[in-house]
Amino acid sequence: MKDLAAKAGLEDQFHIASAATSSEELGCPVYPPARRKLAEHGISCAGKTARQLRREDYAAWDLLLGMDRANLRNMTRICGGDPEGKIHALLEYAGHPGDEVADPWYTGDFEAAWRDISAGCRGLLKVLTERGDAL
Length: 135
Description:
By secondary structure, the chain is mostly helical. It has helices at residues 2-7, 32-40, 57-60, 69-79, 104-107, 110-130; strands at 64-66, 87-89. Strand 1, helix 4 and strand 2 form a beta-alpha-beta unit. It is globular, with a radius of gyration of 15 Å. The mean pLDDT is 92.
């Protein structure tokens, strides 16, 4: 998402970050196959490490996106609910509500995950710029 915003000249309009809903990989760098897939597209993730979503993140962010139903359940639990309707599935923005991002952790298919995440991020950027959130 950061790469898309930068390519659109909108990097200063958004604050984009990532957080895990589980604790297995906290403090670890980006998983090597994911890092390779990003590098194929000219995206660096140097220096990035996993951190966990916190309850206070709900108040700090305008939108929280999950990749699958388990993420969404965990996000809602961690945040103590979703009273402001901030928690959404990424693929809602690709026109696929109810669908989940293909999880390469289990399948090893990082290309499918790339396609899903790219489609969701492109759709999200389009929605945000059309409604003026990036202005």
